[in-house]
Amino acid sequence: MHTKQNVLEISGVELTKSILIDLQKLSSCSGEPIASVYADNLLRTMRTMRDKLPFDPYTEVVMALHDALAYSNRWIDYNASQYQGVCDLLTSLVNQETINNSSVEAAILTLENLGFDTIPFGVKLDQSLDIHEDE
Amino acid sequence: MDDKSIPQHFLDTSVLRSLLLGTQVYKQYFESQFTDQPLYISNYVQMEMRRSYLINLISFYFVLRLETINNIGDAIALWSNRFKTSELKAILQLIPQLFSTHQLNFSSPQDKEKAISILGIYIKRFELLLRKKFNNTNTDSTTCTRALVPLTLDLQNLAAGLKQFADEFGDVENCRSNCQIDQVLLVQYRAEIEQLIQIAAQLPKNSNTRGFINIANNLKEILAQGATACDCKRCEKIGDAVIALNAPRNMQLEHTDNSFDYLCPTINQPHYKHPSERKIFAR
What we know:
By secondary structure, chain A is an all-alpha fold. Chain A is 68% helix and 0% strand. Chain A has helices spanning 2-29, 35-52, 57-70, 80-94, 101-113, 125-128. Chain B has helices spanning 13-21, 24-33, 43-65, 72-82, 86-101, 109-132, 158-170, 172-178, 181-188, 190-201, 210-225, 232-237, 239-246, 260-266, 277-282, and strands at 9-11, 39-41, 135-136, 252-255, 271-273. In chain B, strands 3-2-1-4-5 form a 5-stranded parallel sheet.
C-alpha cells in the first residue's frame, strides 16, 4: 500500500511536469493560432490527470487551472505573462518534496491573483438566485 | 456614490455572489469598479453565500451520488423536476457548464463517477475562494456560528466531509444557541431598528420599498417578541438589515438590493447601489 501511494505521488508530479511543457509553449506563443496545438494537448493531459489521479493534491491545482482555461475556450484570452506566472507556480510546486492542503490552497489563490478565473461558471443572477426571502 | 473619498469597499452578499458567480460581463463590470482596491466581507456575508449556494451544491453532490441515479442526466432531471425555488434553479445553470467544460457524457454511468469527483473539487475550491479571496473585516458582532462551521474535505473521502458540514450547518438550534443576534438587535442597535420601523411605516409599498418594508416588519416582530423571535429562519428574512448594521461605518457598503437605499441613510452607513446584471447587459 505504501509503495502504491509513492507511485501515485510521483505520477502526479510527472504529469504536472508534462503540463508545464505545454504551458511554457503557450507562454511563448499566446495569442497566435499555433497556441491551439499546445492548448489542446494541455487540456487533454489535464483530463488524463483528473481521471488517473483524482485524489492527488496536484490534480486539485491542475483542475483549478483547467476550469479557468477550458471554460468557453478562455485559454485564448490569457497572455504570455499569465502563462509564465503559472509555469513559475507549478515549477515551485513540483520542486516541493510534499504538497499539502495549505500548498494547494495557496496555489489556487495564486492562480486567482494571476488573473485566472478558476470558478468561471456564471449563472444569471437577477432571475435565479434570491438570497433573502424578502427580496 | 455617497462619498467618493472612501477607499475601502464592504461587499453585501449580492455583490459578493456576482463577483463569484456572475456572468463574465457582470464580473467585468464589478472588476472595473473595484480595480486593485481592497474588498472586504464579513463572516455573516460568507454565511449567506453558504446558505444560499454552497449548501445547495452539496445537496446536488449527494443527489448525483445516489445509487439510484445512473448518470449526470438523471441527477439533473431529478433536481429540475422536484426543486423549483430560484436558489435551487441556480444549481441547474452551474452543473451543465461545469460538466460540459470537462467533456463529460451526461448519459454515461462511468462519467457519473468523474462528475462526483469534479463537483467535489469545485465545491472545495469555491469554499476556499469564499473564505480567502476577500479581506475579512473580522467584525461580526452577531458571532454567527453557522458562518464558522468548518468545511474540511479530504479528496479521498469527500462525502464524509460534506455530510459533516451539512449536519453542522443545518443544526440551527445549536448555531443559534451560540450566536449573539438577539443582543445585536435588541440591545446594541435597538434605537436604530426602532427608527427603521418608523420609516418603513411611512413608505408606500411598491417594488422599490417592498424588501425594506418586509425587513422592517420582521424587525418589528423581533422587538415585540424578544430573543425567542431571533432564530436562523428569521435571520434569513432580515439579512440586509444585519449586514447594514454590522457594516464598518468607515467603509462603503456595495450592494445591488433596493432595501439598502432605506437601511443605510438611517444609520449613516455610506453605500452604493450597483446596477443589476440585467441593466448591465442592456447597456
